[in-house]
Amino acid sequence: MIAVDAHGADAGVEVVIQGADSSGVPVHVFGPPLTAIGNEDDPALAARSRAGASIVKAARAVADGEADALVSAGPTGATLAAAVLHIKRIRGVHRPAVAALVPIPGGTPTLLLDAGANVEVRPEHLVQFAYMGATFMEAVHGVANPRVGLLSNGEEPKKGTEDVVAAHARLADGPLNFVGNVEGSDVTKGVADVIVTDGFTGNVALKLMEGTASTVTGAIRDAIKSNPLSAVGGLLIRGRVAKLRERIDPNATGGAILLGVRKPVVIAHGKSSAEGIANAIRLAQRAVDEQMVEKTAARLEAAGVLRSVPAASVAQPDD
Amino acid sequence: MIAVDAHGADAGVEVVIQGADSSGVPVHVFGPPLTAIGNEDDPALAARSRAGASIVKAARAVADGEADALVSAGPTGATLAAAVLHIKRIRGVHRPAVAALVPIPGGTPTLLLDAGANVEVRPEHLVQFAYMGATFMEAVHGVANPRVGLLSNGEEPKKGTEDVVAAHARLADGPLNFVGNVEGSDVTKGVADVIVTDGFTGNVALKLMEGTASTVTGAIRDAIKSNPLSAVGGLLIRGRVAKLRERIDPNATGGAILLGVRKPVVIAHGKSSAEGIANAIRLAQRAVDEQMVEKTAARLEAAGVLRSVPAASVAQPDD
Predict the structure, then answer these.
(1) H or E element in which residue B17 lies
(2) Which residues of chain A does B156 touch, with a Cβ-Cβ cutoff of 8 Å?
(3) Do B201 and B118 meet the contact criterion of CB atoms below 8 Å apart?
(4) How far out from the chain centre does Cα A139 lie?
(5) Rounded distance, CA A66 to CA A30, Å?
(6) Helices (H) and strands (E) in chain B, counts
(7) In chain B, which among 267-306 make CB contacts under 8 A with chain A?
(8) In whole angstroms, what is the distance from residue B91 CA to residue B306 CA?
(9) Residue A317 pLDDT more than 50?
(10) Would you call B185 and A208 a contact, using CB atoms and an 8 Å cutoff?
(11) Are B252 and B231 in contact (CB under 8 A)?
(12) ipTM passes above 0.90
């Protein structure tokens, strides 16, 4: 059973309920109360102080074993805070990471993580992200032996910040199918199944891709409309372009997934349609069915990259 | 007179000479010898050890006052190393930065810096980049009171790494037209004239934009070709799309400019056409005519953001 946060979708509670109904997956939708958690200064504090909020109720249901996974279209910060506080990190995981699927035209999506949970990371965090991402792509997306790349400002192993260079060395020595550094120009080319970076760069990168794609398509649309002949041409290509848009629609992927916590947590896009919510719920169910969390823990342990002294408290992802 | 490095353009020396001829600007083209400086492990070392290389000759001519500015289509690392070693930093500048113009469809380009010279920076570096970029846009591109943004993972002043948050506070307190944090999704929207970031994020961002734009246009092209009717539509829109491509052609901007050194240094794209080289030379000449360097030094001093103890040696941009 999947716990679904009723609030957070831009289109309202109705869309979430409609998506839950059409998902074909057993769900429990949590909410009201009507005081939702916004993008506040301290989402962790907000999550704690408004224990009645729907995201907190949903996260608690998962923590208590009443549900197997969590889905929310609410603000990432609030979902992250509720998940870390209630569902908790996998033992030995430094930091949970938000992983987002980047659509690759004509190919399998590429998983980019961290997409914003941790603005500053250390090499051991990046290394864990790599294993967490690879396990997700293998277990949930059926990609055998996923290619893992490290986002940097050049292909050579020495390119990047000190932390990136250190992470490169550890990944190159490990058992993953590590393809080395990946440059910004390669992210949308499908050169890796998993691309690892810190949450600052990952957040900027993800939003840049969305922004650039929308700017480029907008500019092409404007150029086409600026002339009667090309406007006719625009009508003739409409169907095909719409199909392309469908194929790379963020709603199709179900949203981002929070990796490194003890149950699957899916962060649906705030702009999700009912179909987007349904896909997020199906993604959560698939992660449950494929035992993503158990496989992640086993893989991190087998690779010897778990933190040696487990945190006494997992509420604060301090390292 | 502009010193032009004959080597480095992918299309060969001929294209550089042709561009120099057609620029309408007095130039001296340096080269051979034929041993070019590649993307080596240590470009600074390479620049020193091959003192005969064309980039070094050209940089020395500028340092000796025989030429007023430097243009090269060679590897950024080699140009940067030659410029810092021979032309030297402006007194009190921590780090020179590579600034690249991002084409904005239907608007003035946005300057993104640092685009790759400094993978790790401190807040005072970001602050200097902001003043250097604003001076360039005002002096060379005629943008009055340029809007300066700071690239981050959220609009709120507290969003970002510790260094970004600290830079935000200093910029908000200063005399620049600071518009606050800019998110990845806004970079191509023309929300700022100057966007400041570290060289790691800037390099990834610039390449991501190029890669995403090429992936999106490629996917649209493929979608159009996949069906006879839309293929006809594709023929009808061709002219307009070609015009758009011209308008946002990187060759039109002349390339990236190295800010913070004592003479203008333009880093033309390796893929430059003769017209791209000519535009790079014209950009360098404009920076000379508009006294960009003098204005940059004056502005940094007036804002009180120069380093207090000038470096004894400027060969190593150590801080």
Answers:
(1) helix B13-22
(2) 39, 41
(3) no
(4) 15
(5) 12
(6) 11, 10
(7) none
(8) 8
(9) no
(10) yes
(11) no
(12) no
